[in-house]
Amino acid sequence: MTALPAAAGPRPRRRGACPGAVAPMMVGDGLLVRVRVPAGVLPAAAARRIAALAALAAAHGNGLIELSHRGNLQIRGVTAATLPAVTAGLDALGLLAADAVSEAVRNVLTAPAAGIDADAVLDVRAPALALDARLAADAALHRLPPKFGFVVDGGGRAHLADSRTDLRFDAVATPAGPRLRVAAGGTLADAALLGLCTPGAVPDVAAAAAIAFLDLRAALPEPPRRMAGLVAAAGAAALRARIPGLEPLTDTAAPERPVRTVLGVRPGWLGVAFPFGRLTAATLETMADLANAHGTGELRLTPWRALLLPGAGGAAAEAARAAGGVLDDGDPRLAATACSGAAGCDVGTTDTHADALALVAAAPALIAAGGTLHVSGCAKGCARPGPAGVTLSAQDGRYDLGVLASPGGPVRARALDPAAAVAAVAALDRLLRANRRPGEDADAALARLAPEIDRLFAREEPPGA
Ligand code: SF4
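Above: the input record for the complex with iron/sulfur cluster. Below: its predicted structure, written as tokens.
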């Protein structure tokens, strides 16, 4: 066991702050301890590690664990009195950073199926782990703003093409062998291209790009906090010129990625999701047992509120389902996101999870057309800061409803109590079902039907509005 780092102590919640294990954050149900797992791989002795982690949560917290949309594990409900024991336990598992500052910048999202996806271009575990280690060790990088993130993706069936980030490395096949396509500020489709690098060059290229970001933003009158803002303000060429070792790109088109298939029995893994990414310590122990008994004894964390069990198949599937897991990519519950709401956050005033499940039942047409629902306990939008097809954002026990909007964004109907919110979404769903064109996805239909939606909510003034 290493000497424990000086405790940063619990932090009060503030916008933009990121909790960790060294510096947990106080939320409504106690301290939230976020555990960053290098490359999302709970490794070789994983079953024991995971069982111990789950036991820590059960013994010292309230036994609730979350899978975050950044691929981290979060232990909820820890108290100030029990935090030292949780911290010591994580340190024994090798999951505690040296200090809060280095922990905060280790935001590397790695392809969850790296090394087990035969369709991937490259197994990116090694470059991702090297980048994680560089971020921890290189003090020059510790000035990066909170939430500045990296994606390292090998392609394949569990790809991260649509994960928006600050600096991304996407594997591509070239005549010279696999390379990483380096791009800044966005998804695979829209990030600004910088060049190619070898897998071994990822830490150096990432560090140079991060330093370039810090230097260039410092020269701007209003320094952007994220890479997309810097690219918009200073241009990708200014960034590119400061990154040595990049190979030029001859093919600038984004590589094709297949439709992502993650859940259920897949060649190479069993994928198991949990509604809203929340599971009990006992469920996590069950998943660890299944990984040990039927797989390689390893779990992979994903940004999709799901775990992958490498090597596990049908024998583990029923047990995972019985434990509350979701094994179908098309399960309607997965169309909804929700933060902890009143049950887990002192800002929340509504039961976001129960309300989200009621909304799922009210919106079959929207969900069948690929639409999304987001129920947020307030305008901060912790669970999904960006837009969803339908967003409900709570204040004082009532919801504001937005369409193709982010929490805190434009509102179509105000101050709906939960029952009225369900009724409003059901009305929107009927409108969509009656007017959606064949083959049109939900977001496109909602955008086209904006005038009808305006009329719908103008007619249906919410009670108390
Ligand atoms: S979005 Fe939800 S979890 Fe985040 S501060 Fe608001 S109520 Fe709390």
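Notes for the reader.
Residues 25-102+278-322 form a domain with the Sulfite Reductase Hemoprotein; domain 2 fold (CATH 3.90.480.10).
Residues 339-341, 345, 347-348, 376-378, 380-382 surround iron/sulfur cluster (CB under 6 Å).
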